Amino acid sequence: MSGYLIRGVQLLGNDQVDLHLDNGVIAEISEPDKRLKVTGAKTVDGGGLIALPGLVDLHTHLREPGREDAETVESGTRAAALGGFTAVHAMANTDPVADTAGVVEQVWRLGKEAGFCDVFPIGAVTVGLGGERLAELGAMADSAARVRIFSDDGKCVSDPILMRRALEYVKSFGGLIAQHAQEPRLTEGAQMNEGEVSAVLGLRGWPAVAEEAIIARDVLLAEHVGSRLHICHVSTAGSVEILRWAKSRGIDVSAEVTPHHLLLTDEMARSYNPLYKVNPPLRTANDVQALRTALADGVIDAVATDHAPHPIEDKDCEWQAAAFGMLGLQNALSVIQQTMVDTGLLSWTQVGVRMSTAPAKIGQISGHGRPLSPGEPANLTLYDPSVKKVVAQSDMASKSSNTPYLGMTLPGQVQATFLRGYATVLNGSLTR
Amino acid sequence: MASTQGRMVLDEGDLSRALTRIAHEIVERNKGAKELVLLGIPTRGVQLANRLAGLISAIEGISVPVGTLDITLHRDDLRLRPARALTPTLMPLGGIDGRTVILVDDVLFSGRTIRAALDAIGEVGRPATVQLAVLIDRGHRELPIRADYVGKNLPTSMQEAVKVSLAEIDGIDLVTISEVQNA
Amino acid sequence: MHRHLLSAADLSLEDAILVLDTAEEMSRVSEAPVRKLPTLRGRTVVNLFFEDSTRTRISFEAAAKRLSADVINFSAKGSSVSKGESLKDTALTLEAMGADAVVIRHSASGAPHRLAHAGWLQGSVLNAGDGTHEHPTQALLDAFTMRRHLRGGKGDLSGVRVAIVGDVLHSRVARSNVLLLSTLGASVTLVAPPTLFPVGVDKWPCSISYDLDSVLAKTDVVMALRVQLERMSAAFFPSAREYSRRFGLDSERLAKLPEKAIVMHPGPMNRGLEISAGAADGLRSVIVEQVANGVSVRMAVLYLLLGGAPQADIEYRTLVEA
To answer: Do C18 and B88 touch (CB under 8 A)?
Structure first.
């Protein structure tokens, strides 16, 4: 591990400092506007850049094992590094499902071998995501992967008894259930948000109440049994209200939102282009506004990408036949800049909290989301907010290309990412 | 395309006299007005056919059936421009089978309109004869078509445009010729 | 005109009247001794039907053949399980065969849009019914029928009052009719039980009612939509009997209509459910005419889409002449 001297970078968007990274930690930080004298380190020009703690994603689909045609742990973590992430949580809906110690350890090991960012596998709540029996949550927690978050994401743990048992069971090892809130009966065959647009387009609707009803039930369950609860990809104004109420009652619930739910609305479906088909669906402008406000005031604790790669044939077709999901890792910070920072809703310091500190705390992962001070692990991201880039296929590291942002101009670019002092990204490109 | 102010070629009186002469010629050639059907080609051929029918009726004392024949769908230049709106095709009672059809148009130029009209007639029925009456023949035939009855022969160049105005549509009876730049 | 016909919303008032007027002229062809025009000779029209519909397919086939186009029928059984490879690969095959127009019926809403905009085809795309989204030529033939009976076959439909009764939620015919009829100046009332209205219908250019009887006296056209019995098992209404009682068009309800009102149905009918035999076969019913009018209207649409220069050529020429 070579040392790095980052010159003249804005720490969390505030003071301009020099940073010295050495032996995997932040060795020294200069006084504001002062310079460090260091020999033998590689210099990185931090002029015009913002230093953020390495981003942590609570919700990513790496598709390996089983769908390596869409993404692998290696290609997905390459995209993550380019997006400024030093840690990602890999969802369990692989093939085979990550419902045993064996599969989660495999994913964890693949992440270590690739070496682009830390991979923390998420374990399934139920065997095979079938929603019938609990998976061996304890075994996964004790495995080398040390799983702490459990989720059937892709599907909802809809059986109230099973959800109650899961919430209770994980208390013994400090685990957390992350719920994908979608009442299955109200959303059978659903294609997009139920509203004015779906009525005109003739696409079956996914009503907001199907998300809100599950969240309402689960926060009450969590309160009743005294457990922590996490809600994945919150998408509606009504969900925000329920979370606000729950937190005011002291219920231990955390929530995440995706960048695309902060930017796009269901109007995009009018083109019938399946790149906009996602679960939960894109909602109305009113919902987008409520989500932004909630992320700003902390009712929503974190940003999580729900990076969902799909091969071309699963999107190059009619809407009904298309898979749900879009990529998210590589453009996340740009979308957050556009929707939250440039609009004055979040400062860069707060971006650091929402995209690094809070998710690290929710996932209970040490070493990430730490303060940027001497002695802390050197997990950080250098970001240039001043450029404007057209999102191009050729820049994308993911194996898949299902992002609606292709051809769009987004602000900002990650210039460098350091994983425990090792540069995974320098000058805007992967180092290997 | 700029055009200079037109030069008058036929005024109201000339036009009226030409039509009267054509009416007499039709009656003479066909030995009366029995079995005659006039088919006007939209737009202005229709008004001319109506006038001729009236003139022939006055001469022979019997009424002459008149119809309109839209030739749009039989044109040979359909693919060169956006699809055109159709005008009505209305056949008179008694149809055209076995009768003498006189096609009536305002200007005879390349002859393609008349070719299309002959095709259109073929799909409506089988007349005994088809004759052609035009107000103006401006030359420049591109097909072997000729008129049986001509109001006025008007030699023109390809850089000129002939405009027929009729009272029923344009408020005045007039034929003008004008220069057209960038023909 | 346009390059595609995907939705009734694609048509302005001028466009709609042009189609209806052209259809009037086309209908005369069907009465002539030689029912053929050379207009689309050399053009290839493909009927790409992913859903069975003999009636609509035959209508389009007749329309294309009367204009001398070559017709190829492609019945693809693309089930919901098989992926969009069916649609894309099929489109690429048709393009290689030189299809000038593709008439598509598909169970997925938006499939014609994908066909038109994904870059797989050069030709025109005509929506013959996509999922629960739209069926623009049905709306056009319905408007044509209404115009003939109520406006002498000319002009628009201002002042015409139309009631559409049935499963609005799942009906592409309802959606297209609401759009086209309001463009043509008619006023539309949709009638159905609350379960069969989509959320968001209050934003549509029409009124809604749950009570058929209150609407009939002020209606010039009653259009009954087909109701599928499968909807009962999904709890949209409790029984066929109850549906029929509350929303079925029967002789008693016919008697409430004004004298000159007409009865329509896009077919196929569930006699005894949404419409009684008496209403379907009675004097006010124009259901059989609707079918005949379908051919004239589809001839008009095919002519206007394909009868002139290809859209790309028009754009090129406009550039050159500028």
So the answer is: no
Fold of A54-363: TIM Barrel (3.20.20)
Give how far B150 is from chain C: nearest CA, Å: 30
Mutation target vs C (from B73, B74, B79, B97; most C CBs, 10 A cutoff)? B73
Q: Domains of chain B: which residue ranges?
A: 13-75+88-156
Chains with 3 or more CB pairs under 8 A to chain B: C
Strand locations in A97-154 (E) = 118-121, 149-150
Q: Which of C8, C10, C266, C6 is nearest to C127 (CA)?
A: C6
* Number of DSSP helices (H) and strands (E) in chain A, helices first: 12, 19
- Decide which of 3.40.50.300, 1.10.3720.10, 3.40.50.2300, 3.40.50.2020 is the CATH code for B13-75+88-156: 3.40.50.2020
Q: Chain B closest CA to C35's CA: distance in Å?
A: 8
Could you say which of A118, A306, A314, A384 is catalytic?
A: A306
DSSP string, A296-337: HHTSS-EE---B----GGGTSS-GGGSPP----TTTHHHHHI
* Confidence (pTM): 0.88
Give domain limits for chain A.
4-50+375-430, 54-363
Length of chain B equals 183
Give yes or no for B98 touching C (CB within 8 A).
no
Closest CA–CA distance from residue C87 to any residue of chain A (Å) = 7
Kindly determine whether residue B86 and residue C22, on different chains, have CB atoms separated by under 8 Å: yes
Could you tell me whether strands B7-10 and B174-179 are parallel, antiparallel, or unpaired per DSSP bridges?
Answer: antiparallel
The tens digit of pLDDT for each residue in C72-105 reads 998 776 544 455 457 888 889 899 989 999 999 9
Active site residue A252: no
Cα separation, A232 vs A359, whole angstroms: 12
Contact C199 A201 (CB under 8 A): no
C10 touches chain A (CB under 8 A): no
A409 class by beta-carbon count within 10 Å (0-12 exposed, 13-18 middle, 19+ buried): exposed
Q: At a CB cut-off of 8 Å and minimum separation 6, what does A321 contact?
A: C80, C83, C84, C87, C108
Counted residue by residue, chain A has a size of 432
Pick from C34, C306, C309: CB nearest B123: C34
Under 8 Å between Cβ of C160 and C150: yes
Interchain CB contact of B80 with C (< 8 Å) = yes
Assigned CATH topology for domain A4-50+375-430? Urease, subunit C; domain 1 (2.30.40)
DSSP annotation of C251: H
CB atoms B88 and C25 under 8 Å:
yes
* Closest chain B CA to residue C38: B74
Q: In order along chain A (432 residues), what is the average pLDDT of each group of 10 residues?
A: 86 95 95 91 95 98 96 98 98 97 97 97 98 97 97 97 97 97 97 97 97 98 97 98 98 98 98 97 98 98 98 92 97 98 98 98 96 96 97 95 96 97 96 94
Task: Classify A36 as helix, strand or coil.
Answer: coil
Residue-range domains of chain C with CATH: 8-134+291-321 (3.40.50.1370), 136-290 (3.40.50.1370)
